[in-house]
Amino acid sequence: HNTSIKNQKDLLLAEKTQKYYELYFKFFPETKNSETLKYSYAEYLLQINLFQKSFEYYFQIIKTSKDKALIKKAAFSSIIALEKLKNPIGIDENENKTENSSLPKESKTSSKNSSPFNINNNLLQVYSIFLEYEKDTPKALDILLRKAKLLFDLSNYNEARTIFTELIYKYSDKEEAVF
After folding, report:
1. Which of 22, 92, 119, 160 could cross-link to 151 by cystine, CB 3.0-4.6 Å?
2. pTM
3. How many CB atoms lie within 10 A of CB 67?
4. C-alpha–C-alpha distance, residues 44 and 8, integer Å
5. How would residue 1 be classed by pLDDT, with cut points 50, 70 and 90?
């Protein structure tokens, strides 16, 4: 019974939090702190497993911000959101919520229109954006490997082979690159 009450309180809090963020963005779309608030809201959405909505806010930051550090953080976080949306480990795929949570579920259609949300295309896009800002680092190696694997899974063998070859030559001293 106490778990049920806690879950109801969590759901109510989540709904109110979302409502107040959305109202703020509606009435104060471009303020001095709007990028920081959008990032905080996207982080919150990620925590409550609203991955697509979280990605959409991260992506707004990527497209509008002039702060390169914030863009890089938003790109990496959007990768996490999309990968969790694609492979929801520990999340009930039918409900898109954790087992112990009664937080809202989300659909896999874009909230702006009724077209299907293409996780793979969005992932490829944010992989590329992240790699523009993060080069020659362990994170870049990891993201390049993820991008190549996704391209391979999508039967885009030529582009995947190009990245795999780059990984082998550029990162030959790294175990992850030579597999």
Report:
1. 160
2. 0.76
3. 13
4. 18
5. very low
